[in-house]
Amino acid sequence: MTNEAVDSIDPWDRMRSHTLARIGLRRAGDTLATPEVLALNASHALARDAVRTPLEVAAVHAALAELELGDPVHVTSAAGDRDRYLRRPDLGRIPSGPLELCSSGADLALVVCDGLSATAVTAHAAGLCAALVEAFAPDYSLAPPVIATQARVALGDHIGRILGARAVLVVIGERPGLSVTDSLGIYLTYAPQPGRADSERNCISNIRPPHGLSYTDAATVARDLIDQMFGAGRSGVSIKARASATALPSRPPGISSDNEIS
To answer: φ and ψ at 147, to 5 degrees?
Structure first.
């Protein structure tokens, strides 16, 4: 190998192949090299787009309809528009008005929210929701799915209560960063009702195959958490995902076939 070839090898290249984090950034004097600055600006633009791009509700509606859980319903938060949503997180947690939803008495309510990344919802919500349905059927009944826009996690508490669900799963676009803009999260809350604290929820984060958690793995963890919640009658910090949950767990003792705690 020539001296010129050796000089062209960047010792950070091998480490960069294992992470999306910005490491070993090249410099030009006291500042970043021009390619690094341009790449940073491009990533920043993608993150802004993820936050600002409106959710393609019709496409998500069509994908959720294929799950055959019933006709999906679209609701909005009190934020109204994106600018207000970003300035007033509190308004994203409450509905814009009375929710026209029918109580189903189902075990689980599935709510798909745009959150802070409609990009993530467009890319991954259909695949993730299909995996969730497969993971929970036939042991748990699911209400017709709900699509919520300008929505924060707590909006799911209002939806879950009106649907009469014993637990709500909020699938939501996570806050984008400069390396990841399409990450989904699932927030699980037992006995949903307005006023629930964040400590009363469980979260599964970084769902974005192939670089993050796969749909199947996320659904497996969700099933494990729901099994524990229904057995304990609560959700939150006292419920922990079990590291050994690598396959769909069977219904645990204490929960009968009609989903009533015995």
So the answer is: -105, 125
